[in-house]
Specification:
By secondary structure, this protein is mainly α. The chain has one domain. The protein contains 15 helices and two strands. Strands 1-2 form a two-stranded antiparallel sheet. Helix 2 packs antiparallel against helix 15, helix 3 crosses helix 15 and helix 6 packs antiparallel against helix 7. The radius of gyration is 23 Å and the shape is globular. The relative contact order is 0.14.
Length: 389
């Protein structure tokens, strides 16, 4: 649409740095195949990373580098439309079956894939609303009544589709995603409420005089945080009403009830939970036997008793890469989280959510939403190059 060529992009310093990191990371993964007990499966994992993750990271780098307000709005409204359509379909025709291993067939959806997708939508929509409030996109004073109505409709729309996405996550019964959403919501609520309290006038306990903090003097900052608190509370109430009032299959209550049955750590014999606990226990045993360089990519599958997946990205690298692999993974996390926070604290919060999901699901090559955080490293390098010029 902008008649842009791909050659200028690959010549940018940020693209070169980003590509170098991905290339070196793949080289390290490939080296571990030399001592892997299951190099064939390890190669499949690396190939999956190259095919599904690397292009996504590079494309996301381009999209962020050329981001504009129109594209952002189209993206947000697209998420809203998808949320409305998919959640409406699920309410009418429940397409999930969490009792058996997923096999593709018409009319059946993967609750894992959908749950990860719709929960990510919810986080993005929520953080976008918070960003709008912080940047003053949602104004408190308007020139005309028409502007006030339009702005009110926009905010209400965002609140509604965010609540709907939370409800969609609940319908998928993907427990890690739903817990992650609650942690994001509670975290933002606590942070916003803390700033509201800190920016309020309070009495000194010793003198009894009114004290004005520096934040109190900035009335705009206090107003923003009050708006954030109200927005989060409204979204919470709307989500709770959807969950409580709309009829739902019994399997949803069954899965969530099992998750909170922690008295004897048996979780009512829930197979999904126990498969993860068994995988984590087995991972620890392998780590103790192979602490330095691990058992190589794919090596975990040679030891598995119940599950072929470690279901935890940190344990996966500790098992298959040892201390070396875990240090490399943590270094990449430092790079992506540091650069994402410099880009925006809201992108940082989103990556924290995706990291939480990766601690409970399959393998590193399936965590595309987490890995796109590397894109911000390339964007940051481009920004620094421009500043030097």
């Amino acid at each position: 649409m902008n008649n842009e060529k791909w050659q200028p992009m690959i010549n940018k310093n940020g693209f070169k740095k980003l590509f170098s990191i991905l290339f070196l990371f793949i080289c390290y993964l490939s080296l571990t195949l030399a001592y892997s007990s299951n190099p064939v499966y390890g190669f499949q994992k690396i190939l999956n990373f190259i095919i599904s993750v690397v292009p996504s990271v590079l494309v996301f780098y381009y999209l962020v580098s050329t981001l504009n307000e129109l594209r952002l709005k189209l993206f947000i409204y697209s998420l809203g439309i998808i949320s409305v359509l998919t959640v409406s379909y699920i309410i009418i025709v429940y397409p999930f079956d969490q009792s058996t291993i997923y096999h593709y067939k018409p009319g059946r959806w993967s609750h894992v894939i959908y749950g990860r997708m719709i929960s990510s939508f919810a986080v993005v929509l929520l953080l976008y609303l918070m960003w709008m409030i912080e940047k003053g996109k949602t104004r408190l004073r308007y020139d005309t009544v028409r502007q006030a109505k339009e702005e009110r409709r926009r905010v209400l729309f965002l609140m509604f589709i965010t609540s709907l996405s939370v409800y969609g996550t609940y319908l998928s019964a993907l427990r890690a995603a739903f817990v992650g959403l609650m942690l994001v919501g509670v975290g933002l609520l606590v942070i916003s409420a803390w700033f509201v309290v800190r920016s309020s006038r309070f009495k000194n306990l010793f003198t009894g005089k009114r004290v004005h903090s520096e934040l109190t003097k900035n009335e705009g900052l206090r107003t923003q945080n009050v708006s954030m608190v109200y927005s989060l509370l409204i979204i919470t109430i709307l989500s709770a009403l959807l969950i409580l009032l709309i009829p739902k299959p019994d399997i949803i209550n069954y899965r969530f009830n099992n998750m909170i049955a922690i008295n004897d750590l048996q979780f009512k014999g829930d197979p999904a939970i126990h498969s993860r606990l068994d995988s984590w226990e087995l991972s620890w045993e392998i780590i103790k036997d192979n602490p330095v360089i691990g058992v190589g990519m794919g090596g975990f599958s040679s030891y598995h008793k119940v599950e072929v997946y470690p279901h935890n990205i940190m344990l996966e690298f500790a098992v298959e890469g040892g201390v070396v692999g875990l240090l490399i993974l943590c270094s990449l996390f430092v790079v992506m989280f540091k650069s994402s926070y410099r880009f925006s604290k809201f992108t940082f919060y989103f990556l924290l959510f995706t990291l939480f999901l990766s601690l409970f699901s399959k393998e590193f090559s399936n965590q595309t939403m987490l890995w796109i955080g590397l894109s911000f490293f390339g964007v940051e390098k481009d920004k620094r190059s421009k500043e030097k010029d």
